Amino acid sequence: MSMPGTVTPPKGPPSETAPARPPPGKAQGKGKAPAGKAPPGKAPPGKAPPLMSRAAMGTGAPVPSGPKLRPLFWTTTRPPAKSVWTDLHPPAAFDQAQLERQFALAEARTLTRTGSRSQLHQGNEEPRKRLRVLDDRTSQNLAIAFKKLPTPECLWSVLQTLDDFPDCLPAEAVMALHAAVSEQHEPIEQLRQMCLPKEGILQLDMPERYLWVLASVPGSSARLACGSLIVGPAREINDLRLAFENLGTCCQALRSSELVRKCASTSLAIGNLLNRGTSRSNATAVVLPDSLLKLDELRGIVEDPANENARAPTLLDFLAQALVDDAGIQHFKELCPEADDLRAKARAAQMVSLEESERCCNEICAAVAKAQRGLPEVCGSPDGKLLAEKVNLIGSEADSAAKLLASVKEELTATQQWSCAKPKTKGDEWFAAWVQFLDQLSAALARAAPPKSQPAPAAQRSALKELNCDQGAATGTKTVSNAGKGQAARTKLFDDNARAEDFDIAALLAQAQQAPPAKSSSQSNSKLTADAGGQRLHVGNSTGKHVHSHEFEGKENAFR
């Protein structure tokens, strides 16, 4: 029997009983699932939700059965038209059971601790590190730096005896130890105060064990300073000396080069001619080598307009041709080798940064001074004395390099002032400009035409007066034999300054034949002499001998 206003539940088993409705006037709580059902997206307690893709959930595809497999993390996309995915071939057959066996996802296993802590550290495992003086980051950095070192026990023996030190250790490891002993003062002091025995270092981490070696060996800082000097900065001294020598050699070569001087003077004259009538005319000096680089930038005109492929000459080509013509046919081939030699020296000097080299030289000198201050702590053993000798030798080489640096700086300053370089110009940049100009000059000299060969000047023949004087001095004949005969006798002679090529041979022969006859004996003699003289004139006598028309007889020896 039911009362009014009450609802009688239907009869049946308890499992089929409908869920109770909320009281009148109260709605079901927001987000709460009906009794006996889990909220949406959550599995009932004690049961994991099934793995299902969103596409399968949306389409109602059946949930795959089988064990969980290892996922493949690849990138999915939408297949474009006419791609391999739009027209797929059937897949090859494979064994699904084997796939599930080989790629099954292993379940996470909970580590169960069995036995006491002492049983976990049985065997050859080291005890847990309990003593630490370094933070994690410093310990990691030192572990990386010390990875090339031998064991701490071997390192302790090497530093203690100095046997073949520092050559027995890698250079990087020696530098790392020296840096550690210089930077890790507090950890090393803490380890020194602990007074740990050699067997107690097992309680330390590996980087701290090496620091313990530095703390336990007396004078380790001085020994590592000497070793770091030998394997590090000392190997750079020879390179520094070579660099300084290249700088000094190039500076001296530029100042003493005739080619550079000739280029400077010729370019100044050419530039003043081009700049006439302007504010830059009548210049007395220009900045080198910057001004010389302007020569290759100024181009002229092609003299042959018909040749379209002709290259317009530059002002540097004009200068090079002038240098070649000035050198002459015998020396113009020496210009290109001289320019190439200067360029090689300038290129070697360009590779040296004087500022960087000076800083490196100062660091080496400081390292030498630091190592020499610690030598009293090192010289206690024979190997220590050998180490001290090496340090002193490096010190002398460093002093020599420092003196060479001071000399090179003076050379560079003097050479830059000689070339009127811009103030505060770096050495490597200045030498680079010289390399560029000498490169251009060498190419221009190669393009220049060889100088034209000039004809040899004609040989000047001696005048008859000079011949008469020479022959008179040689034979003892007086050259002024006609001085007392008066002006009348003088007029019978030709000019003493006349030349043989000025004679009219035919007129002389005719005059000799038309001469009036004299005495018989003298006439015959003069006739014979005239015939002999005529024969000599016919064979082209070019010795410049003068012939007396009426007094030829008796003067044959003088003409000869």
Please, could you describe this protein's structure?
The protein contains 22 helices and no strands. It is elongated. By secondary structure, it is an all-alpha fold. The N terminus and C terminus are likely disordered. Helix content is 51%, strand content 0%.
- Contiguous low-pLDDT stretches (5 residues minimum) are 1-20, 22-31, 41-59, 109-127, 473-494, 519-530, 532-553, 555-560
Number of helices: 22
Structural class: mainly alpha
The major beta sheet can be summarized as: none
Features:
single chain; mainly alpha; disordered N terminus; disordered C terminus
List the helices and strands and how they pair.
Elements: H1 54-59, H2 96-102, H3 117-120, H4 136-145, H5 152-161, H6 171-183, H7 185-194, H8 206-216, H9 220-231, H10 237-256, H11 258-274, H12 290-293, H13 315-331, H14 335-350, H15 354-373, H16 382-418, H17 427-447, H18 464-475, H19 486-490, H20 505-513, H21 520-538, H22 556-559
Helix pairs in contact: 5-8, 6-9, 7-8, 9-15, 9-16, 10-14, 10-15, 10-16, 13-17, 14-17, 15-16, 20-21
